[in-house]
Every structure is written in structure tokens, then in C-alpha cells.
Design brief:
The complex is a heterodimer of chains A (274) and B (264). Chain A has 274 residues and is mainly alpha-helical. Chain A is built from 11 helices and no strands. The radius of gyration of chain A is 23 Å and the shape is globular. The longest helix of chain B is centred in the C-terminal third of the chain and has 30 residues. Chain B has 264 residues and is α/β, with parallel strands linked by helices. In chain B, helix 6 crosses helix 7. Classes of the chains: A mainly alpha (274), B alpha/beta (264). Chains A and B meet through helix 8 and helix 9 of A and helix 2 of B.
Chain lengths: 274, 264
């Protein structure tokens, strides 16, 4: 029944494409084309309205023209490199802390009860409100930004890991123990493969949050990164550069998220898919 | 594959939980010779499952001890393996990986694991599904995988906790016969806990009845029947009827005695 429904559902625009991956690609290209078209139309009206004419560089065509220039000057690459370093560093710290504590929360009832209230309180603090504190504590701007990313993304990793563990069938541990598993085996052969899906889902959420925190954090004192590049473009009134950078942020976030979705699908053993 | 059986000796085993007044069972003594298939029959809550968990080393009794070939059981071991009511397979592993998982906990080379897994899968007749996702198998096939996962360890004792109760009648009947014939062929002991009299008659060499609160062994009966056993065979039917009436008598006698005790 569901197959029939799916076939009908897919028989729209991309019905003539047989391969599911190509179908997905076709949908994506279609969606992007509509987005570009709307942007193009908006840009056209801005450029042709005397009162908004000075913002014409926000339009699609000036932006697309700015990208090759920025690439040639190495501005996009440098910004990506600086931001990626901070993101990677911050996320790594978040995973290194969130994963083991998440396992502890999921496995140990006492720890879960004890940690629940303080963790919920800390979790609800907007990551950016740590900024003044971070600036005091860390000697460099880089350190502060990495801290802010880590503080924002540790919670999704921790709570997804704990939620994954809560779904683990206790009988699996009994079966494994019965077959001679030692505690290390429980971790590497049972717990980790059982929760990889949830951990990756947590990292996906964390990535989204970290990405949101990164750009405003880079409006602070640093002189590199995507957030800085946007700030810089605004101050020099180069609106085409500004939108090109905004577009870059979106594109990278999209690629990272898609990669994680693919990883999640690969590691998912839940029937019905991710 | 050939496995030596083990003498199982239970000495004065009791189990009491601090939260309950009456012990679950009290001073149970039992000997099962090497290679025997022993059934423990009893109503739910008579402590038979707890007894099996103690045999597996997954729980400790409050008093008494369990000896396998004279050696006291202090914890779980791949030498005595338990099969549970549900298969509890690892859904992220294939059939082969599930079967071999116990071997990966020990010091086995990859080629040895592969060899023994292939053998165990053949034993339960799942060759065609070796690389399948276990979630695609039927309940009976999944319980066969669980059986192969136990057999691959070449255990001296296979402990079965109502392992077929969730299966349909046909699958249950065929698995009961298969487990008995594999055990007899390889020579390992079986201890099966069940509330199903038929299961005991088809699978066991001897049946003991547990009843009362606290539970104790109130009766035992030899199941001296030739193999293969067929449930429609008059001899099987006759033994089944006898076991059933013994079971009911034992349960009533025990219940009556308790009622008497309570009035005093």
C-alpha cells in the first residue's frame, strides 16, 4: 500500500527519473531554482525602485558575480578556514564532554536524577549570554569563540546520547554478559553500535546550534572567519560581498548537514529509516 | 562439534528477597547427570526462572550452592549459556554476526570464528539467511539465530527459560525437537524451565515439578520415551496425562498444606 502511495507521490515533476538518488537531486535542483528565481525577482525590483536602488548589490546577479572575485582573492577560503577551525575545535570539545556524560546520564539513574536540574538550567542559558564571561576568562578571541560553540553544542550531544541509551534493550546486556562479555565489550560492541545513530543525530543538532552561534560570535573582536567577513563587507558597503558570504554560510551549513544525514542513514539500524 | 556433558548439582539452594516475607524457594537439592535433558515444570511465580538464572550465574542464591562437575558456579561463563524467552538479537548485526558475537568476546581468531559460525548456522538450518538482517526474519527464525548464538559457544549446559513460548505451535514443535536432537547428538546438558507439560514430555529425559510458596521440588518423573518423539504417539499422550495429574495433585497437596499451616 505504502509503495503505491510513494509511487504516486513521486510521479510528480521527477516521475520520469528512475534512480532514487537522481530523483532526490532533481528535487533539490528544482527547489534551489525556485529560490534563485525569487531572489532574482526581488533583486530586480530593488534595483529598479529609485528609493532602494543603492541596495541593488544585494540582488542575485551582483552576488553571483562577487563570488569568483572573492574566491580569486582567497577571501572565502580564508574565512571558511578560520571558521571551520573554530567550529571543529568547539564541536570536538562538545563531543568529548557530551558523549561520556551522556552515557553516564543514560546508564546511571542516580547521576541522571542528580544532574537533571543543574543541566536543564545551564542548557537554557542562551549560549551568547556567556560572551562577557568568556571574554574575561579566555586570553584570545579565538578561545572565547571556541568556548561559546562548545557550550552551545554540548547539550544536544549529551541528551541525544542519553536518549539513545534509554532506548537500549537491557536484555542485550544480559545476553552479552551471559556470552562472556566484559565491561569494555559492553561499551564497544553493544553500547556504541546501538547508539551511534542517536549520537550522530545529536551531533547534527549540535552542528546547527554551533553554526548559529559561530557567526555572531565572530562579530566580536576577531579579524577572520565568516562572521567577520560579513561585518567587514557591511562596513565597506560592499553589499554584493556581504550576500556572497551569507550564501557561503548557507551552502557550507547545507553540505555539513547533508553529510551528517547520510552518516545517520548509514549507521541507523532502526527500521523505517532515519 | 562434540561437547561433553556436565554433572549439575544443586545443594540446599534458597533464594529470598529482603522485601518479601516468604523465600522464593527454599533448600532445593537436585542432581542432573552429564548429558541429561532436565525439565523444571511449575506455575508462574514458583521461582523456577530464578533458579535457572542462578544456574546461569546471572544471580546468586542467598543460601546453598550450584556445582558443575564439582566446581562452584560464581558467575556467567560461555561454558553454560542461557537462552531467553525472547531472542534479543542485536539488530545492527547480520545473522552471522549475531551468531558469532559471543566468540568475539573471547580469544578466537577470525578464521576460527567464521568456521564455527558457519557450522552453528548449518545446525539450525539458516544457511540461506547467513547475511540477512535479523529484523527481516520471522520469530521462529530469530529464535533459531539465538539458539545458534548459544550453540556456537559449545556450552556444556544449555539453559532454556521458556524459550519457545512466544512462537506459534508449529514452529515451537519443530524447535523443541531440534534442540533435543542437537543436544543428544553433541552430548550437552539441557535444563529447560517451562509451564508447558507437552514441552517437558517432548524435550526432557526427566521432569521435576516445582510448587508452593516458598517453592520446592515436590515431585519428579522419568520421561523414558524413545526418540524421535511425536506428540500424537499414545505413549507420549499417556505420559503427558500422568505428568499432568501428578502436577495437579502436587500443586493441590502443596496448596492444601499451606492452607492448613495458615489456619494454625
Amino acid at each position: 500500500m505504502s509503495t503505491a502511495a510513494e509511487t504516486v507521490g513521486r510521479a510528480g515533476a521527477a516521475g520520469w527519473i528512475k534512480h532514487p538518488a537522481l530523483q532526490q537531486l532533481a528535487w533539490a535542483i528544482g527547489g534551489f531554482s525556485i529560490l534563485m528565481l525569487l531572489w532574482g525577482i526581488g533583486g530586480y525590483y530593488i534595483a529598479n525602485n529609485p528609493s532602494t536602488q543603492s541596495f541593488a548589490a544585494f540582488g542575485l546577479m551582483p552576488t553571483l558575480k562577487a563570488i569568483p572575485y572573492l574566491l580569486e582573492a582567497g577571501k572565502i577560503q580564508n574565512a571558511i578556514y578560520a571558521s571551520a577551525f573554530r567550529m571543529g575545535y568547539g564541536l570536538s570539545i562538545a563531543i568529548a564532554i557530551g558523549l561520556p556524560i551522556g552515557i553516564l546520564v543514560g546508564r546511571n539513574k542516580r547521576f541522571r536524577e542528580l544532574s537533571n536540574s543543574p543541566f536543564q538550567l545551564l542548557r537554557m542559558i542562551s549560549p551568547l549570554s556567556w560572551t562577557p564571561l568568556a571574554v574575561f576568562v579566555f586570553a584570545t578571541w579565538n578561545g572565547s569563540i571556541i568556548f561559546l560553540i562548545a557550550v552551545a553544542s554540548v547539550w544536544p550531544v549529551m541528551y541525544s546520547t542519553a536518549a539513545g541509551l534509554a532506548k537500549v534493550d537491557p536484555a542485550w546486556f544480559r545476553v552479552a554478559r551471559n556470552l562472556g562479555a566484559r565491561p569494555l565489550h559492553m561499551l564497544t560492541r553493544i553500547i556504541m553500535p546501538a547508539i551511534t545513530f542517536d549520537v550522530l543525530s545529536g551531533i547534527r543538532l549540535a552542528l546547527g546550534v554551533a553554526w548559529i552561534v559561530l557567526v555572531p560570535a565572530e562579530y566580536l573582536g576577531v579579524t577572520s572567519g565568516l562572521g567577520y567577513a560579513i561585518q567587514d563587507a557591511r562596513q565597506t558597503l560592499s553589499y554584493d560581498h556581504l550576500t556572497a558570504m551569507v550564501l557561503t554560510i548557507g551552502a557550507i551549513g547545507y553540505v555539513l548537514d547533508t553529510t551528517l544525514v547520510m552518516l545517520i542513514k548509514h549507521y541507523s539500524w532502526h527500521r523505517g529509516g532515519a | 562439534m562434540s561437547i561433553r556433558g556436565t554433572e549439575i548439582k544443586i545443594e540446599g539452594l534458597s533464594q529470598r528477597y529482603p522485601s518479601r516475607k516468604v523465600p522464593t524457594f527454599n533448600r532445593v537439592d537436585l542432581i542432573s547427570p552429564p548429558g541429561e535433558a532436565l525439565a523444571i515444570i511449575g506455575r508462574s511465580g514458583c521461582g523456577k526462572s530464578t533458579l535457572l538464572h542462578i544456574l546461569a550465574g546471572l544471580t546468586r542464591g542467598t543460601e546453598g550452592r550450584v556445582l558443575f562437575n564439582g566446581e562452584e558456579v560464581t558467575g556467567p561463563s560461555p561454558r553454560w549459556v542461557m537462552m531467553f524467552q525472547a531472542p534479543h538479537l542485536f539488530p545492527w548485526m547480520t545473522v552471522s554476526q549475531n551468531v558469532g558475537v559471543g566468540l568475539t568476546f573471547g580469544r578466537w581468531s577470525k578464521s576460527e570464528i567464521r568456521e564455527r559460525v558457519t557450522e552453528a548456522i548449518q545446525l539450525v538450518e539458516l544457511q540461506d539467511f547467513a547475511e540477512s538482517n535479523v529484523q527481516d526474519l520471522s520469530g521462529g527464525q530469530q529464535q533459531r539465530v539465538a539458539l545458534a548464538r548459544s550453540l556456537v559457544m559449545e556450552p556444556e549446559i544449555l539453559l532454556l527459560d521458556e524459550p519457545f513460548s512466544a512462537l506459534d505451535a508449529f514452529t515451537r514443535a519443530s524447535l523443541q525437537k531440534d534442540v533435543r536432537s542437537i543436544a543428544k547428538r553433541l552430548g550437552f546438558n539441557i535444563v529447560i524451565v517451562t509451564h508447558d507439560i507437552d514441552e517437558a514430555v517432548i524435550m526432557a529425559d526427566r521432569a521435576v515439578i516445582m510448587a508452593g510458596s516458598p517453592g520446592s521440588i515436590v515431585h519428579e518423573l522419568d520421561v523414558a520415551l524413545p526418540d524421535p518423539r511425536d506428540r500424537h504417539d499414545p505413549a507420549v499422550q499417556e505420559l503427558r496425562t500422568r505428568l499432568m495429574s501428578t502436577f495437579q495433585e502436587a500443586a493441590h497437596a502443596k496448596g492444601g498444606a499451606e492452607a492448613m499451616e495458615a489456619t494454625h
